């Protein structure tokens, strides 16, 4: 090997080592930077006719396990969805009160029944009659508060869907812009590793909105596909949802008035899976309308069973009482929990809880006949109170005639939802099951979030171990590079000395 070639080889080695040390220093400096991954700068030996002529640096590459990264992003989407469910359902859980304190629906129904038992012992006691009216007011207020909480959560779910569409569009636009920059850098023969790190952060934010897969092509291209095969455009205008006011009688789909999640002119509300976007749509269109319907049926059954025995204790704002025998959407039950109140006539004259508000004509399969206590009738009139205690709160509408179970099908504003509270007959039984099921919705969301969070932390640790910067390892690599740099420098110095000796000999 000639001295010129030896010098060229050593100088090429120094250049490579210089770039590798700069790469190592950059990794160490960015060890705590979000999204930064370990970079690799490899060298490639150069030769001509079997003779080595030096080394050249290859483009900087990322040390990334894409499969692990994709799994971590999916877990992040599950965590984001669970947190949204927890936040929206948490208010409903709080609105149910604490069963152990007796202020949940089941406890308040039991308190109303207890006030009737106390009045049955002394029907002439005006204070006890007032206590019945007060207990009824407490129960109606709890129904009202729960209906407000569910309705508010449903509005928040729609607003969250609107917000997530905007967040997804912003992430897609950033991914598209970074992809153009990456393609430009790669086409110019430069590294785009740092740009790819930034694009992965944007992909991670998008994965919190909906479940995606990323198909990576040549020259830095990516194709983003939502679960279900929907290819997402990277132009920042993929999704749209119109703002709307969500009411008890509004729904999405068919003849409904709630806007859907649009993608390229198509309604994809029910096709989007995973992430906050799917969670918001499911809460708005399924979970919360079902919970509202269960609450409405509980309130409607309560009012109707008092009505059937001769006491119109609860009505809506127009003075009407629902008919639970009719379909949910047409029998007056829809939205009744929000409108439920103590009958103003009873509130004005609590004696009606003893005497009755109207006569009942006996009918096969229904309540037996009842005539109210006439004006000036006996102060110890207990017929109505016995009927209420035996039949309104019992399993039968009349002796030997069982109550029908509370409906479970045909629920929701469009009549397509089904309740899981099946086979329940008594008011307190249905209310207790309702409280437990609805309060547990938030607990189930928290459990799902915790499972996804645990998986995400495990995957995150593996991604960090595989792709993150280990400062100790990089420092050790820096020492090795320094040693190699010293050896190459000695080669240059040796060649220089040989040249000097040669020049001296020639002179």
Task: Characterize the structure shown.
It is a single chain. By secondary structure, the protein is mostly helical. The protein has 2 domains: about 100 residues, no CATH class; about 375 residues, no CATH class. About 55% of the residues lie in helices and about 10% in strands. It has 12 helices and 14 strands. The strands form 6 sheets. It has a 3-stranded antiparallel β-sheet, with helices on one face. The protein has a 3-stranded antiparallel β-sheet with strand order 8-9-10. Helix 2 packs antiparallel against helix 11. The chain is rod-shaped. It starts with a helix and ends with a helix. The mean pLDDT is about 90.
Terminal CA distance: 24 Å
Largest sheet: 3 strands, antiparallel
Spans where pLDDT lies below 50 across 5 or more residues: none
How many beta strands in the DSSP annotation? 14
Spatial shape? rod-shaped
Topology:
Elements: H1 3-29, E1 39-40, E2 43-48, E3 51-57, E4 61-62, H2 66-95, H3 105-121, H4 126-187, H5 193-209, E5 212-216, E6 222-226, E7 230-231, E8 239-240, E9 262-263, E10 266-267, H6 275-309, E11 314-315, H7 336-339, E12 341-342, H8 344-348, H9 352-355, H10 383-392, E13 396-398, E14 401-402, H11 427-467, H12 471-506
Antiparallel strand pairs: 1-4, 2-3, 5-6, 6-7, 8-9, 9-10, 11-12, 13-14
Helix pairs in contact: 1-12, 2-4, 2-5, 2-6, 2-11, 3-4, 3-10, 3-11, 4-5, 4-6, 6-10, 6-11
